[in-house]
Amino acid sequence: MILSEDYLQNLLDKTIPQIHSVANCAVVLEGSIAEGFGNSSSDIDFLLIADSDADLPTMPSLLFLDGRRVEVRTRSVRQLAEQFSAITTDTRRHVGAVSEDLLNRCQRLLRSFPLRNPDLVAKVKGLMSFDDFQDTMREWWAHHARQSIRYALALRELGQDEEAAAWTEAGLLQAVKSWAAGRGETYLEPKWLPMQLDRIGDQPLCDRYRTLASREASGLDTAEYITEGVRLTADLGVAGAEPDSERITVARATGVTTWQTGDRVHVVRDKQDVFVLGDRAARAWRSVVFGRPLGSVVTVAEASGAPQAGPLIAQFLRFGLVKVAWKGDGPIVPAMPLAAPSGPVTPPPSIARPIVTVGGAAVGGEEGIDLVPMPARRFSAAAMTLVWSNVLVENAREDLTGALDREQWSVAELSAQRMLRAALRGVLSAHGVNPLPPDSEVARRLSLLPAGADTDEIRAKARHLATLTIASAAQGSAALTALDDFVALVRHTVGAHSFPSSFDSSDGWRQTLEMGYDWLRLGAHLDADLPIDEASDLLSSGGAQPHLATT
User: Fold this and answer.
1) How far is it, in rounded angstroms, from Cα 105 to Cα 323?
2) CA 257, CA 270: separation in Å to the nearest integer?
């Protein structure tokens, strides 16, 4: 740990009187500091364990003590037993179905540092063998790596080399996380990966990964990068993603139907969304034959009068109108853990943007009575995601400043990219894009936004910021300034210029909760998807933190 046990015990003594705690509970320190990572901006993460079968809140409470942000979570022994049991059950069914949130909670507990009642801590840690958990993490990351690399190979068949390289980069990260988990480095969040590899030690595979960790920095062209990335993924122990164009087939998407009126083709998705196709797109659509290899489908489409069919079919794939599958192993379903949820991309409606701001829907004028051009559930979901993206910007900025303070340049680069991508999530959400594209594609999917002075400037600056390098204090300072300017531009564009600094003070966190609570109430009324699980606790508590003692 980077903090002494005496300091932590003293901080815990100051924390307990401010929360509703349980008598004789156990307390552990979990998270990055317990792992031996962390920096001056890292949370102090306390988990209180009650020796009972109570239902304790999922949402943490935040305190600000001694210049540190203290996060307090509570779990009962029954809840912890159920968490471990759920991992075992889901792993037996399908390791890819195990919730990343569940894995994260269990990992943090298993690698935590006991501060009070060590006997109870040992009891709950004994509910799952760390060796078994380590195997689960290795297999879980390998599953995601396999799906990402397969998807990259599919995109390459469609001529989408840049996106294929981005998914190769994502797959490599997942593959090296699998490899590292097999060596005891099970911490879930990728931001500490550079330090995890340093802790593993001098290994040729680590060196190869560092060379390929970023497509931009690798020095390879796109085709070479994909080839080397696929090869390294296999060498890291992830099987089942070998280049074989005959294995990648086109598959039918559930709930998608085609309707033609005259010469015009419409494709209806899930009885909610209608896509109308232009003549060239319609010819490509009619050429799709399910079950055939993807490459041959593209060839047939182009021969039948649909030039550049690959990019068109790639759009069908992004929008969930078709799927790709790995022959003999079902659909290819890539995902990026701890990033935006995967799923079909919904392009923005066809009028001026933004549609929604943090303060409410955009309106055309003082006397306007304007219909929001998107379904109500998606509108509220986009609004909640817009708010949450701004919270993530604040969180990533805090990680960035902490990493710069400790001269952790690799961690700083990862934090800078998280800050950029979180801001771009907000831009897309404000323009009605929901669900969001995965983080590996979020900058490229700015192409979905309409042209305009603000959006054109955002696109241009995002392209520049995506290639930031931080290897010195000067570069770090310049990157922080550029990102702050970019966030200010984004927030001005999407009406979030007054968003509070969520993690600097209790007042800032209170304002953030109040802002999020207003949108959560609307989202709950419409049965919209909540951005995080803890949001349900915020609803049930009436907008208040669940653990704070009343004064």
Assistant:
1) 32
2) 9
Q: Based on the domain organization, do 224 and 280 belong to the same domain?
A: no
Decide: 337 and 188 in contact? Cβ < 8 Å: yes
Spatial separation of the C-alpha atoms in residues 462 and 261, rounded to whole Å? 41
Residue located via tokens 């002075």: 453
- Distance CA(3)–CA(466), nearest Å, equals 34
The answer to whether residues 181 and 198 belong to one domain is yes
**Whole-Å CA distances, 104 to 108, 345, 373, 435:** 6, 27, 38, 23
Same domain, 497 and 379: yes
**If pLDDT is split at 50, 70 and 90, which confidence band does 346 have?**
confident
Interatomic CA distance for residues 540 and 380, integer angstroms: 18
Per-residue model confidence (pLDDT) at position 215? 85
Termini Cα distance of the chain: 34
Q: Tell me how far apart the alpha carbons of residues 198 and 207 are, in angstroms, rounded to a whole number.
A: 10
Q: Is 434 helix (H, G, I), strand (E, B) or coil?
A: coil
d(CA 65, CA 265): 61
Residue 364 has pLDDT above 60, yes or no: no
* Residue 136 maps to a domain: no
Rounded distance, CA 27 to CA 155, Å? 48
* pTM of the complete model: 0.79
CA–CA dist 479, 483 (Å, integer): 6
The two three-digit tokens of residue 77, written as one number:
């022994």
**pLDDT of residue 345 exceeding 60:** yes
Q: Domain tally for the chain?
A: 4
β-strand pairing of 44-50 with 68-76: parallel
CB contact at 8 A, 489 and 465: no
Q: What is the dihedral of CA 2, 7, 12, 17, to 10 degrees?
A: -150
pLDDT (tens digit per residue) in 66-105: 889 999 999 999 999 999 999 998 888 888 888 899 999 9
Question: Would you call 329 helix, strand, or coil by DSSP?
Answer: coil
Element spanning 59, H or E: none
CA distance 417 to 483: 10
Integer Rg of the chain from CA = 24
Of 108-112, 258-262, 424-428, the range with the highest mean pLDDT is 108-112
Q: Which residue carries 């190979």 as its tokens?
A: 153
| Angle between helical axes of 473-493 and 453-465 (0-180°, round to 10) | 160
Structure tokens of 528?
A: 């919209």
For residue 539, the model assigns a pLDDT of: 41
| pLDDT for residue 350 | 38
Residue 532 pLDDT: 54
Q: pLDDT tens, 424-441?
A: 999 998 888 888 888 888
Do residues 289 and 430 share a domain? no
- Distances in Å between the Cα of 545 and the Cα atoms of 16, 51, 535, 548 are 15, 23, 11, 6
Structural domain containing residue 199: 145-240
Place of tokens 């390289």: 165
Q: Where are the alpha helices (DSSP H) in 306-358?
A: 309-318
Encode pLDDT of 490-541 as tens digits: 888 887 766 767 666 677 666 777 666 676 766 776 676 666 555 455 444 4
Residues 150 and 113 grouped into a single domain: no
